User: Fold this.
Amino acid sequence: MSRYDGLNLAELLDLMHGLVTPAPIAWRPETVGWLILLSWFLAISIIGAWYLFRRRRRNRYRRDALKMLKAINHQQDLEPAESAQRIAALLKRTALAAYPREQVASLYGADWSRFLIESTNHDSQIVAAAEMFGTAAYRADADGRKLSGPARRWIRLHRA
Assistant:
């Protein structure tokens, strides 16, 4: 005869022990491989963030030049020749920010046009407008509306 004979259901349930749950799983990796992988991931993330930060800081002059170009284009009271002169001066300032002063400061006319073409690897839109860029600062018949698109393209594409 067993000790459970003659017991009702409620008494039998009282004799049962509670459920045994396993220990919780730790969120921290237990093996060295996961720690190595995590450290590599963090190192690559830090290097990537540093690279993006430096690249963004290095190209700040481009963003500033594009803002200035947009401001020139939105000024309603400018004559076309005056806006062309301002765009030409903006390109010169942008080039001075990107290239050594000795290489850019003395350029004008055909030499300036050649520099603009070569710095964008002979982009077709820059080639078409290069002669106007070279003389825009000195001509009364220059039109800033025609130079705006190629100037924006040069600011974005030039290799510094």
Observations:
- The chain has two domains: 9-57, 60-157.
- The mean pLDDT is 89.
- Helices lie at 9-15, 32-58, 60-74, 80-98, 101-104, 109-119, 124-135, 144-157.
